[in-house]
Each structure stands twice: as structure tokens, then as C-alpha cells.
Write a structure and sequence with these properties.
The complex is a heterodimer of chains A (591) and B (690). Chain A has 591 residues and is mainly alpha-helical. Among the domains of chain A are: 245 residues, no CATH class; 53 residues, no CATH class. Chain A contains 17 helices and eight strands. In chain A, a hairpin with a 3-residue loop joins strand 5 and strand 6. In chain A, helix 1 runs parallel beside helix 9 and helix 4 runs parallel beside helix 16. The longest helix of chain A has 33 residues. The two termini of chain A are 32 Å apart. The mean pLDDT of chain A is 92. With 690 residues, chain B is α+β, with helices and mostly antiparallel strands. Chain B has four domains: 286 residues, no CATH class; 85 residues, Distorted Sandwich (Calcium-transporting ATPase, cytoplasmic transduction domain A), CATH 2.70.150.10; 128 residues, HAD superfamily/HAD-like (Rossmann fold, 3-Layer(aba) Sandwich), CATH 3.40.50; 135 residues, Calcium-transporting ATPase, cytoplasmic domain N, CATH 3.40.1110.10. In chain B, the strands form four sheets. Chain B has a seven-stranded mixed beta sheet, sandwiched between helices. A six-stranded antiparallel beta sheet of chain B has the order 2-1-3-9-4-7, with no helix packed on it. In chain B, strand 13 and strand 14 form a beta hairpin. The chains are: A mainly alpha (591), B alpha+beta (690). Chains A and B meet through helix 13, helix 14, helix 15 and helix 17 of A and helix 7, helix 10, helix 21 and helix 23 of B.
Chain lengths: 591, 690
């Protein structure tokens, strides 16, 4: 089997699943009867009754207000859980509460669907924090993103209407019809492939071969251990004083299967363990790797089709899907070529497998690195720090484009719609008409909002990274020198500023200053586009629909798709070319 | 305005524009254009930096000479932008100057009523609304108004450029007069409708000069986009400085990045090309409209014209030549064609209507029938009357009549003649073909039918098919019956028609189309058109029309030409296309500028980044200067395009997009690579001399 065929399942499987799923979600948005209704509807109605959720729809301002309030409350609860986890139940390992800056950063990170982790889960968070704190937010933040998209789609669909849906009903429907059933299926698949699911806490087992650490708890490489004498000698046969011999290990067992399922499905990406999906307990086999990769792509892809379905203009949904797919497949192809090739160093040889898990291999790691940054998941199964220079550039660039190549659940599509409006604006002028999309005119108001939606990612990344870049102290957060060190730095801010959350590795973000700055970057790029896109939806919903003719710019045409791709790339390139030149490009040219 | 200036600009305009270019350097003028204001601030900053550098305070990276050259180029960039705007305004001003000539101080003969004509001489500017004044032959009308008594021929060439006088009379649709025009004969009493300073002429001058020009929604939206891009670039450049600081720390070297380079990069990246030309494009669009002898009440109206997708066109004058013409004589009941032709000609000799003339001419062409010399004593012409609805002649004992089929049949039967079945059949078939039948009888015997035909203008069908390709629907408005209308509509190739049109049905049609989401454009002149004009999205009032029509419309066509609507749509589309294309071009330019400047800037930090110097520019200094010079020169190079507008073709939107994307998108990427390289080749030897 040629190597390239190993890449195909990662593209084909999600697409095949996303098409029917998209239709199903379309029915959920339209509140139409579907095959899940029989089971879900009774629960749903009871839910509405308990929580006093009415059928009354909201205008865009009320909708935004509810989104913001929900997120604020989520944030406050999460901060308190993380800060005071030592007073809360479900802490078998007796972890202390997180520091305020770290708790702040982590709470923002999960509420914004970023899941940037400045800590390692297995050594910092209790079961309670993991499941009641983070996992709940994995559901909630994903649902918020999708709900906003639902409202945006309604705005584009409706004419002369001032309401765009009810946030609480949307949220409920997304939980009950989408996230819960889908993550249940994914959890089962993960369980079947060997991912643990337990709340009993760590299990201690004997090591097959003991290891030794020195006084500073650092592993002694090549140590000769004499268990009977309790003596340790190093590789040069010198006796190591006060060395400790370790014969047991603690297996970090959590309810992984359920949490990994929603972490991928909701494009959250925050792993239970620090190593994320590179750890065998989160991603044990090539099969689980495919399941997780598919889960990341599933909803962002499907929502494109839902968009066309609800608007009753399937071609428009396909046009957006194709735009994303072209960028996506191109990135996978390029990453595949770069990583199969690897970096070759003199005296050492080819480093294609460096930083990658053997059970996953190069194709599984290369595609994953693209999928996780194309979508805003940010889960990792390999160390990007060890990828080739340009292999590290691509994931970074995908985030810098604003997470619109499928992107986050909901957020990817509404972000892309922002770019569609920008493109329609320029293209519309070029054909001599006041620009319009789906029969709605794009005036100064829509333009202002679209610009805010599209540029908040570059603004968040550029602004947040400028301040630490000027500080000497930042040097100590980097583990590499030269251009590669700068790549580590740039990646961290791109990750936070694009709500991705993945890590390049080698960058320590857990300082008070960085925790706060990165959190602010996450806030900007999450909530500015949400408000802007809801405002557009509100305004477009009020408009009449302009009749279309051959004089109207066709937005489902190859020319438009091409132009959309160019606009996305140009805005990305113009914003980040200098930064990339100092980082991965200089790094690449060095070798 | 009589002699329209077809060249883009003459020497006088350039001189004026050069002067204006310097005046526009004041901050209050600059801040109106945010993108250029950024360049303006950059120019000031580099000027300060060069001053500091001359006194020995510098960053030690760039020389004083370099900073001075950079600041000069930046000032030039600002000046070029000013020049573009000034020259566009200059063209408008030239047109306005013509108009102002007719706006001399005029004395008016104020009267108290239309019957009491004892005049009181007052200054024209002091006339109030609803005042009455008298104008006699040779005098200039002092204010816009409505004729309430009398009729006069008026020379309106000052406004329309049309030298033939027009008749203005009390009552009806020809009662509006414009201040500044001259009465040639007779005298009229005028009621003031617009006071001085607010008159039609004042508005026109304001619009043409660009003083009343407000930014249109499209322009505002575009400017927002450009401002946002500029803000991003400010951030990019600021972040770049921070990144350079970090990178040099990582590498343990001194930061080799000069602030001057960053300013240069910022100016190059900012969308200065479109920023500099944006207002020129808008003014030029207005100016093109004026050259077509159309005045828009707002810039918004022009853009709306580009958006219209339904055109309501009057049949007469737009689709067909003004009048019907006789095209055939069809004899019935065994009479000969010649017999019919002779009778028809005789009956029409006194008929001065174009239809009547065309019958005489057709008879002459077909049978070489000269206009017969009729002995006056034997001849009695029967003029057309509303009661009989027919006309004719009593000549040498023959009573010849012509008229509508029903009337003639009635007349014949009433005078004991025979109704003709054959005639009825012919009449019916002519009606179905969209023609108008005129029946001719002699001594109560029906001779036959004259086929009057609407003559479709040449090239109209092709025009409508072009419009259809562009997605514009054409609807013919006519007073004809539906059968006739359908036949003409089919022949002319319009998409739809409104037969037996009344002001109410026009209004209803417009509303219906608007409810379906269409934007409707129409032309009108009469007072009864006013409601429909007010409802239409783009409403072009004829200058010959009433004041009410003009006020209801958002454009006035000085030529009163019904085909003007199509031209207006073209100008509107061209305006938007020019903006879109130059924006694309401007942004696409940035790619080459990056490849020029980035390697130059970072060569101290990572020498290997020189690989990105794909243009092989000679040195960092020459690279940065070349990019800056290109950035400034491209503005000047594109001024003609901004004024003329990009080429417009009547094709579908998808084709138009592909075409413009190829030229301005791809061209925008490639041209600066070539341009910067060429400039580099030119300035390198100069730099070496220094």
C-alpha cells in the first residue's frame, strides 16, 4: 500500500459522515421532526418546563447578551472550582488549588473553546475539576459556538424579521440532539479501542524494570540499579549518592473515554493528560486516532451542509465546504510531503519520526497536526516542536488564518461567513453592484462587523504577542534559541489568539503575565466575532431579500470560491508574513 | 457645457490641480481620508527623524540621507493623492464655472397678482417662495418657478446646452422654468418655487463642483475596510518591531531594525493606491454623469443606478421612433392599391401630425404621387375633431374620410353605406401585429386600410439582450392596448410590458417589482408621473418636465432623452467596478512589496532570508526605496483610470468578475514585481554615485 493511501481515510471518512449529519442538524435548526425526536422530545419539553424556557425568540442584542452572560457565569464557576479544588470532593490525589493567574487562564481557555493548557492535567487537576469543571465547559463552550451559528444562519435566512432564535432553546437542542448522543457513540468507540473510563483514581503498579532518580528527582539515564543493595551507579559506573530507586508507577486513570470524546467532538482539544492524545490512555491505537481525527472534523464539516440545507440553497453550503476542503487538503498534502521527508541532520540522519508516536506514525501525526489546527481543536498527538521547520509553519498558519478551515464547531463557519462577506464586498463592487450575499445587501454596518469578525484573530495574536516580545523575561519561557525559539513563541500566541489551544511544545506559558495576556487574546478572538456576526445576522434578518439575476454575483461558483480562498490567504499572509519570516521560514533556511 | 470636454484634462486644469494639491496638505483636509492621513503622519514623522538625524541623533542603522529621501517620497505620495482628488474636482469645477456664468445677479419685476402687472423692481435674490414676477422677452428669469400666466419661448441652453428654445406655458406639463434661463419671446408671470441659494441651478453647481458630495454607503463601507486593513498593518509593523527585539535577544545580537524601515513598510502595505484615488473615483463618476448631461441629486443615486435590475422604459422615443409611420396600403373589396393611396394622400394633405405626413410620403414613394395642387375653391379640409374622431377632405365632389376602424364603419353605415367584412379582418390582423389601422373611405365606400406601424429603433433589440445578460429586466410602458403592446414588445425584445399604462398602474408595477426584491429605475416627465418617480429607486426626470416631476426624481436628464436610463446604469456600474478593481489591485500589490522589503529588513538578523529577495534587488536601501517609489508612482499612473473608470462590458456578472479578477487581481500581483525591479535598476547607479 503506497504511503499516501494512509492519508485518505482521514479525509474521506469525515466527509462521508458529515453529509448526512449536516442534513440532520439542518432539521434541528429548523425545529423539524427527525428520527431522534421520539427519544429526545419528551426530555426536551420537560427540560423547558423545569427551566422556564419559553418559545419567545430574541433579537440579536438579547441573544448576544445571553451568550455573554452564560459564558461569564461559566467562567466564574470554573475559576472557583479550579482555585478551590482542594476543598471539593473527587480529589483522590489531593492536588492543591491552582494559582489565581493559572485558574483565570484555564477558565477563560475552556470557556472560549480554546483549551490552551498551561498545566499538565495528571499532576494538577482533580477528577472533580476535570469532569465537573472542564468537561462541562467542553460541552458548554462547544454548544455556545454552535448556537451562535444557528442564530447567524437564521439571520441570513429570514426576511424582515427582527428575531434570530432563542439562545436557551438552541443550547438545549444542541446538547440533547447533537453533543450528548454523538459523544456517547464516540466514547463507546474509544472504549472499544482501549481508552480507560474510571473514576477510581490512579492505580499503582509495579514497574517491569525499576528506574532511578537523583536527589533532584531527575532521571538517571543508563543507571545500573542494584535493588538488593539499594545502590545506583551511573553509566560511567560512578556511584550516585542519595539516589532513589523507583519500582512502582502510578497509572493516570481518569474517565478518559468520555472526556476525550467531547474534547474532540466539540473541537475543544483540552486533554485530560498533559501529553494529550499522544498519551496511550487518550489515543491508544491507529483506529482510535482515526476516530478522534474524524470527531474533530465531523461537526465543523457537517455544519457547512446544514447551512445550505436550512437556507434551501445547498450549493451555497457546498461552496463554503469546498473552499474549506481545498485549503484543508492542500495543507494535508503539503504537511504529508514535508513530514514524510523529515529533516535530515548531518551526523544524526533523518528525523522524520522525531517527536512522533510509533503507534501512530508519520501519516497519522502529520494529518492530525493539520486537522487539529484547521479545526480549532488543538489536541495533539505528536510534538510539533520536533517537526520540520515548514511542517511547523503550516499548523501555525492555519490558526493565523482565523480558524476558518472548518475551524471550531460553529465558530469556524461563522468566521468563514465573515470572510465570505469581505469577499462578496470586493467581488460585488467589481461586477458593478452594491455587494449582496444571499440577496442581502452589505452596507457599512455589515462591513464594519465583518471586518471586526475577520480581523479579531490577527489583532488578538499581534497585540498579545507584542508586549511579551519586548520583555527580557520572555526568553526564559523558550526552550530553544534562534528562529526555532521564536517559532515556539509565535505558535503559543497564535494558538491562544485563534482559540485553538494546541501547543508547539517547548514554550512555558505558566507565568502570571503570560497567563493573563494569553487569556485576553482568547477573549478577544472568541467574543468579538460572536458579537459581530450576531449583529450582522440581526441586521440581515431585518432586510428584504433582493432578487437575483445574472447580474448578481454568484457565490456558489468556482470563481467565487477561488476568490474567497485568495482573500483568506492574502489577509493571513499580509498579517503574518513578517512574523513567519522571523520564525519558521528563517528556521527552514538555516538548515 | 455646450462644448463638452472630451479629453480627460487640459493644461489649465492641471495648473489648478497643482495649486490645489498643495492647499490640500493642511491637516484638516488630510484627516478626511484616513488611509492617506496615515501616510501624512508617516511623512511628518520621517521629517522629524531626518531633522534629528542631521543633528546627530539617529539609530545608527540608516543614514540621514536615506531618511530624507524616504520623507521626500512620503510627502510626494501625499501630494500625488491630493493631485488625484484635485484634478477630479477640477473637471467638475470647469463644468460648474459654465453654469455660474448664468448665475449673475438678476433684477426681477415683482408683481402682486397675475392680473395686476404693475412691476416693482427687486433683486432676484430677494424673491421669496410664492412671490410672483413678470419676465418679458430678452430678460433672464430670476428664480426657479412655475408659469402661472402666459406662454413664452425660453432659451435654456445655459443649463441644457441645447440651443433650440423651448416653450413654457401656464398649466400642463410644460410650466416649470429655471432661474438663469432667458425668455426669447412673449412674456410670462412666474410663481417662485425655489428661493435663491436653493434653486435648481444652485443645486446643480453644488453637485457638479463636488461641494455637496456626501460619501455614499458603498464608499463608507469600502473606507471602513481600508481603515481596518490600515489598522492591521499598523499592528503588524508594531508587532514586527517587538518580534525583532525578541529575535535579536534570542540570537544575542543588537536589534538591527530601523524605525524608518518600519514606517516605509507601513506606508507600502497600507492600501494607499485605492485610498488616494477613492474620492477621485467618486467625483469622476459624478462628472461622467454630468458629461452625459444628467444631474444626480446625490452620489447615492448613481450607485443605486448600478444596482437597478428592472428598467421601466417608455415605448415612444426609447423603443420606437417617436411616431408611427404608414408602412402599407391594404385595399379591400376589390379596390386598387393606387386608388386607396390617392385617397389616403388627399385625406392627409392637411394633416400635420407625423402620422399624416408619413401617409403622404408613403404614397409619394410608392406611386410617385406628387402633392397635388388643389384648387382652393374646390377643397374643404375636415380637421380631426374629438366628436367624429376622423379627418379628411371634401374635394371635387368626393368626401374622403380617414380614421379609426370603428368610427369610419359607424360613419359609413350611418350614411347608408356598406360595412366591409374584409376591412374588419384586415384591421384585426394589423392590430394583432402591433400596428395601428386607419380606415379610408370615399363617398361612403370603404377603400381600404392604411397600416401605421411603430418603427423599432435600430440596435434596440441588441441593447436589450445585452441588458438581459447583465441581469437587467426591461419593461415597456405604453398607452397602447395589450395586443399592440405585446406585438411591439415581442419585436423589440423587451422582457415585459405594461399596456394602457396610467400613473396608477405604473406606481403599482413599480411596487410589485420592489416587493419581489428588485430595484426599479424609470424616467418620467409629467406631474402625474411624480408618484411613480418618487416610488422608483432610480428616477430620472426629464428637464422638460414639470417641477413636481423633477422634485420627485433623484436625477434630471437635461437632454430629456428617454434612452438615457441605460447610460445612467452603465455609469453607475462603472463607478462601483472602478472602486472594486482598484481595491483589488491595491491589496494585491502588497505581496510584491513584502518580497522587496522583508528580506531587506531582516538581512541583519537572518542573512539567509535574502533568499526571499526573489527580485534580486541590489541592496536593502535600494529595495526599500524602490518599493516606496513604486507605491507613490502607481497613484499617478492610475489617475487616468480612476477618472475614466474601468472598462465596462455588458456581460454576466460571473464573466465580469473573472475578467476583472484576472486584470486587476493577477495584474496587481505581477505589476509591482516588474515595477519595483525596474525602479531598482534605475536608482541603483544613482545611489552608487552618492
Amino acid at each position: 500500500m503506497p504511503v499516501w493511501m494512509q492519508y485518505l481515510p482521514y479525509i474521506i471518512v469525515p466527509v462521508l459522515l458529515a453529509i448526512p449529519l449536516g442534513k440532520y442538524i439542518g432539521k434541528v435548526i429548523n425545529e423539524q421532526h427527525n428520527f431522534m425526536s421520539i427519544i429526545v422530545e419528551p426530555i426536551e419539553t420537560r427540560f423547558y418546563r423545569w427551566l422556564h424556557i419559553s418559545k419567545k425568540e430574541m433579537n440579536w442584542k438579547t441573544y448576544s447578551y445571553n451568550v455573554l452572560m452564560f459564558s461569564l457565569v461559566s467562567f466564574l464557576i470554573l475559576v472557583l472550582i479550579l482555585k478551590f479544588q482542594n476543598y471539593l470532593p473527587g480529589n483522590p490525589e489531593h492536588f492543591a488549588g491552582l494559582s489565581w493567574p493559572l485558574a483565570f487562564n484555564t477558565a477563560i481557555s475552556f470557556v472560549t473553546n480554546t483549551d490552551w493548557q498551561a498545566y499538565a492535567g495528571e499532576t494538577a487537576l482533580s477528577n472533580f475539576s476535570q469532569s465537573i469543571g472542564l468537561t462541562v465547559q467542553n460541552f458548554a463552550s462547544a454548544a455556545v459556538g454552535i448556537a451562535v451559528l444557528f442564530a447567524v444562519i437564521r439571520g441570513f435566512k429570514r426576511t424582515q424579521a427582527s428575531h434570530i432564535g432563542n439562545f436557551w432553546r438552541d443550547l438545549t437542542k444542541i446538547f440533547l440532539y447533537l453533543l450528548l448522543p454523538l459523544s456517547l457513540v464516540i466514547s463507546c468507540l474509544l472504549l472499544a479501542s482501549g481508552v480507560p473510563q474510571t473514576t477510581k483514581g490512579y492505580r499503582t503498579v509495579n514497574l517491569i524494570e525499576p528506574v532511578a532518580v537523583n536527589q533532584q528527582n531527575k532521571l538517571i539515564y543508563g543507571a545500573h540499579i542494584n535493588e538488593k543493595k539499594q545502590q545506583v551507579t551511573d553509566d560511567k559506573d560512578h556511584l550516585v549518592k542519595k539516589a532513589k530507586i523507583i519500582t512502582k508507577e502510578a497509572l493516570p486513570l481518569f474517565p478518559q473515554a468520555s472526556q476525550v470524546a467531547i474534547k474532540q467532538l466539540g473541537t475543544n482539544g483540552g486533554g485530560v493528560l498533559g501529553a494529550n492524545s499522544a498519551h496511550p490512555y487518550e489515543n491508544p491505537t491507529p483506529f482510535s486516532n482515526l476516530v478522534e481525527a474524524t470527531s474533530m472534523l465531523l461537526l465543523p464539516m457537517a455544519l457547512c451542509f446544514s447551512f445550505g440545507e436550512v437556507l434551501k440553497r445547498r450549493k451555497e453550503g457546498w461552496a463554503i465546504f469546498v473552499t474549506m476542503a481545498i485549503l484543508f487538503v492542500a495543507a494535508i498534502a503539503a504537511e504529508g510531503i514535508l513530514e514524510q521527508h523529515g529533516t535530515t541532520l548531518r551526523h544524526i540522519g533523518n528525523l522524520a519520526m522525531e517527536g512522533k508516536e510509533t503507534r501512530i506514525g508519520v501519516p497519522g501525526s502529520a494529518t492530525w497536526s493539520i486537522i487539529t489546527t484547521a479545526t480549532s481543536s488543538g489536541a495533539t498527538n505528536a510534538s510539533l516542536d520536533s517537526f520540520s521547520a515548514l511542517g511547523g509553519l503550516l499548523p501555525m498558519a492555519l490558526m493565523q488564518l482565523g480558524e476558518v478551515v472548518f475551524g471550531g464547531v460553529g465558530s469556524g463557519l461563522y468566521g468563514m461567513l465573515g470572510f465570505v462577506l469581505l469577499t462578496v464586498f470586493i467581488a460585488g463592487l467589481m461586477v458593478g453592484r452594491t455587494p449582496e450575499y444571499l440577496g442581502k445587501k452589505i452596507g457599512p454596518y455589515e462591513m464594519r462587523m465583518a471586518v471586526i469578525a475577520c480581523l479579531s484573530t490577527p489583532v488578538a495574536i499581534l497585540l498579545s504577542s507584542s508586549i511579551p516580545a519586548m520583555l527580557k523575561s520572555t526568553l526564559s519561557s523558550l526552550s530553544n534559541t534562534g528562529a526555532h525559539g521564536f517559532s515556539e513563541f509565535l505558535y503559543a500566541f497564535s494558538s491562544a489568539g485563534a482559540n485553538n489551544g494546541s501547543s508547539f511544545g517547548g514554550f512555558n506559558g505558566n507565568t502570571t503575565l503570560l497567563n493573563i495576556i494569553l487569556a485576553i487574546a482568547m477573549l478577544i478572538s472568541r467574543f468579538l466575532p460572536i458579537i459581530a456576526m450576531l449583529a450582522i445576522a440581526g441586521n440581515m434578518g431585518k432586510q428584504k431579500r433582493v432578487a437575483s439575476s445574472s447580474g448578481t454575483l454568484a457565490t456558489a461558483s468556482p470563481t467565487f470560491v477561488f476568490m474567497l480562498i485568495i482573500v483568506i490567504l492574502i489577509i493571513g499572509v499580509l498579517s503574518f508574513f513578517p512574523a513567519l519570516a522571523l520564525g519558521p521560514i528563517a528556521d527552514f533556511l538555516k538548515h | 457645457m455646450e462644448q463638452k470636454n472630451t479629453s480627460l484634462f487640459n493644461q489649465k486644469m492641471i495648473q489648478d490641480a497643482l495649486k490645489e494639491m498643495l492647499i490640500k496638505l493642511k491637516p484638516s483636509a488630510q484627516i478626511k481620508n484616513p488611509v492617506m492621513f496615515l501616510v501624512y503622519v508617516s511623512a511628518i514623522m520621517t521629517t522629524i527623524l531626518s531633522g534629528l538625524s542631521l543633528t546627530g541623533i539617529g539609530d545608527g542603522i540608516v543614514s540621514s540621507g536615506f531618511i530624507i529621501v524616504v520623507s521626500l517620497i512620503l510627502w510626494l505620495t501625499c501630494l500625488f493623492a491630493n493631485f488625484a482628488e484635485a484634478i477630479a474636482e477640477g473637471r467638475g469645477k470647469a463644468q460648474a464655472a459654465e453654469l455660474k456664468k448664468s448665475k449673475k445677479a438678476v433684477m426681477a419685476k415683482k408683481v402682486t397678482s397675475a392680473t395686476d402687472l404693475t412691476p416693482e423692481l427687486v433683486n432676484g435674490a430677494d424673491l421669496k417662495k410664492n412671490d410672483l414676477f413678470l419676465v418679458a422677452a430678452g430678460e433672464t428669469i430670476a428664480a426657479d418657478g412655475e408659469v402661472i400666466a402666459g406662454a413664452a419661448s425660453v432659451d435654456e441652453s445655459a443649463i441644457t446646452g441645447e440651443s433650440a428654445p423651448v416653450i413654457r406655458e401656464a398649466g400642463g406639463d410644460r410650466s416649470a422654468v429655471t432661474g438663469g434661463t432667458t425668455v426669447l419671446s412673449d412674456k410670462i408671470v412666474v410663481k417662485v418655487t425655489q428661493e435663491a441659494g436653493n434653486s435648481f441651478l444652485d443645486k446643480m453647481i453644488g453637485m457638479v463642483e463636488g461641494a455637496n458630495r456626501k460619501k455614499t454607503p458603498n464608499e463608507i463601507a469600502l473606507e471602513l475596510f481600508l481603515v481596518a486593513l490600515s489598522i492591521i498593518f499598523v499592528l503588524v509593523v508594531a508587532a514586527l518591531y517587538a518580534y525583532a527585539v525578541l529575535s535579536s535577544r534570542i540570537n544575542g545580537i543588537h536589534n538591527p531594525l530601523s524605525i524608518v524601515w518600519l514606517i516605509a513598510l507601513l506606508v507600502c502595505l497600507a492600501p494607499t493606491t485605492i485610498g488616494a484615488l477613492l474620492s477621485a473615483i467618486g467625483i469622476a463618476g459624478m462628472s461622467r454623469l454630468n458629461q452625459a448631461n444628467v444631474l444626480a441629486m446625490s452620489g447615492r443615486a448613481i450607485e443605486a443606478a448600478g444596482d437597478t435590475d428592472v428598467l421601466l422604459l417608455d415605448k415612444t422615443g426609447t423603443i420606437t421612433l417617436g411616431n408611427r409611420r404608414a408602412s402599407e396600403f391594404i385595399p379591400v373589396d376589390g379596390h386598387s392599391e393606387k386608388e386607396l393611396a390617392i385617397a389616403a394622400q388627399l385625406a392627409s394633405l392637411a394633416d400635420e401630425t407625423p402620422e399624416g405626413r408619413s401617409i403622404v410620403i408613403l404614397a409619394k414613394e410608392k406611386y410617385d404621387l406628387r402633392e397635388q395642387n388643389l384648387a382652393a375653391n374646390q377643397t374643404k379640409f375636415i380637421p380631426f375633431s374629438a366628436q367624429t374622431k376622423m379627418s379628411g377632405v371634401d374635394y371635387a365632389g368626393d368626401a374622403i374620410r380617414k380614421g379609426a376602424a370603428a368610427n369610419i364603419q359607424e360613419y359609413v353605415v350611418a350614411n347608408h353605406g356598406q360595412a366591409s367584412q374584409e376591412c374588419q379582418n384586415v384591421v384585426k390582423s394589423i392590430s394583432q401585429k402591433g400596428g395601428t389601422p386607419l380606415v379610408v373611405c370615399r363617398n361612403n365606400v370603404i377603400l381600404g386600410v392604411i397600416y401605421l406601424k411603430d418603427i423599432i429603433k435600430k440596435g434596440v433589440k441588441e441593447k436589450f439582450s445585452d441588458l438581459r445578460k447583465m441581469g437587467i429586466k426591461t419593461i415597456m410602458i405604453t398607452g397602447d392596448n395589450p395586443i399592440t403592446a405585446a406585438a411591439i414588445a415581442a419585436e423589440a425584445g423587451v422582457d415585459s410590458f405594461l399596456a394602457q399604462a396610467t400613473p396608477e398602474s405604473k406606481l403599482k408595477t413599480i411596487r410589485e417589482y420592489q416587493d419581489q426584491g428588485h430595484l426599479v429605475a424609470m424616467t418620467g416627465d409629467g406631474t402625474n408621473d411624480a408618484p411613480a418617480l418618487a416610488q422608483a429607486d432610480v428616477a430620472v426626470a426629464m428637464n422638460t418636465g414639470t417641477q413636481a416631476a423633477k422634485e420627485a426624481g433623484n436625477m434630471v436628464d437635461l437632454d430629456s432623452s428617454p434612452t438615457k436610463l441605460i447610460e445612467i446604469v452603465r455609469i453607475g456600474k462603472q463607478l462601483l467596478m472602478t472602486r472594486g478593481s482598484l481595491t483589488t489591485f491595491s491589496i494585491a500589490n502588497d505581496i510584491a512589496k513584502y518580497f522587496a522589503i522583508i528580506p531587506a529588513m531582516f538581512v541583519g538578523l537572518y542573512p539567509k532570508l535574502n533568499v526571499l529577495n526573489i527580485m534580486h534587488l541590489y541592496s536593502p536601501t535600494s529595495a526599500i526605496l524602490s518599493a516606496l517609489i513604486f507605491n507613490a508612482l502607481i497613484i499617478v499612473a492610475l489617475i487616468p483610470l480612476a477618472l475614466k473608470g474601468v472598462r465596462y462590458r455588458e456581460v454576466a456578472a460571473s464573466q465580469l468578475l473573472r475578467h476583472n479578477l484576472l486584470i486587476y487581481g493577477l495584474g496587481g500581483i505581477l505589476i509591482p514585481f516588474i515595477g519595483i525591479k525596474v525602479i531598482d535598476l534605475i536608482i541603483t547607479p544613482i545611489l552608487q554615485l552618492i
